[in-house]
Amino acid sequence: RQGRRRWYHHYYHLFHHLHHIKVDLHHQHEHQHHIGPDHLDLSDQVRDANVVGCGASSNRTVFLHGMNMAAKMPPFQLVDLSSTASIAAALDPLQRAGFNFVRLAFTWEAYEPVQGQYNTTYLAQYVAVVKALRQRGIYTLVDFHQDSFSRWSLNGCGEGFPQWTVPSSAQHDPADITSVDSLMAKMCPIWGILEVLQVVVPGDMQVVFNGLLQPGGTVQTAFLAMIGKVAGALVGETGVFAFDVINEPFMVTTHLYEAAAAAIESAGWSAPIVAVEPGTTNSSNTRPNIANVIYAPHHYDTRFEVDAVYLQLKYWVQESGILDAVEAFTDDPSETTRESMMSHVTGLANTTVALTDNLSGVVNGTAYNFTGMVSTVNGVVNTLDSYSKAVVANNDNFLGVVEAWVLKEAAEVAVALLNATLFVPVIGLFPVLSDILPILGPFTDSAVSDLA
Question: What pTM value is reported for the model?
Fold first, then answer.
């Protein structure tokens, strides 16, 4: 299959997550059940005659249910549009499954890779997919998508925004999505953990999102212009249900949502439905002044979160990730290579904490306590940190050679200890996953490259 050779490192993010949206249509029929507060009242926006599959004047509540579709990496091909058969092969299964809704990702990098130069072919292909979905009775939520901003941010593990939107001082080389080693070395499976950590210790996420959120700034101006062009190309497409301004922003402002809604209206949409999402750092923004708005937070199943943590821990401990980083440092001792090594070791610690946050507590009557696991990992971090500092301090003499040998020996002992702590049955990760998350089994021991 086309996607099998790529591993979209957010594999757990989109393709199995169902969105359920209840739409209260215009003039509810007097015999319908009471519409409670959990319904979205969009009666002035979505007319029953335009609802996919309803026919004219059906006057009924429509439940939109479906899935996300995204192509986040080059060549950004959502659907093979080369023939009627290829389109049917991609989209007919959604119709057969009973779906009537797709959240369709639009990638800014694909559309404007160079500032001011637009890939009109990509936009035309996106519109064609919207049309093809509509022909199958499927609504589209236009999703202006990003995860951790760009392929050039968050250690090279993000995607969405073009490179030119990332200040050069904050840029990282993108991970090679065809290489498991590259993805693991950059810690892309735990990109969500890396991003959340920047809430406490500021990093490049603050830099890039501050640029986006600056009214009148270069990035925000271009972002709004891009939204306007996309919305303009979709005017008259009855399959478009709403516009999701930005996926899971690290930071966001009410102003950005209101400005995006204005750009969509200026493109020819009357009172468009706009989905707004909470920011990682500021989830309590006030309601935007938008006529038709959906509050759209995302829920993540713990199974997917833990599976990403498992894969990264396995790489560090059982697949020589930590030992390789130590060897790279001892082969060329410097503060730069030491920082690279310690990023892996501290990442290991942060990942272990994330594991305990997800799994600690009482499950099916069994109490799980991971204090010892966290303590062991923290001990490893402190040991390797102190030894590596000694290597750098004595790099120009014989003592440095001895310290490097001691560090290697300490690392091997530490990894063995971690393996026993994290993975050995009874006290470790394997029984926790099989006990608490039985569905995870088929994923747990699969090669990362097979998970697509």
Answer: 0.79
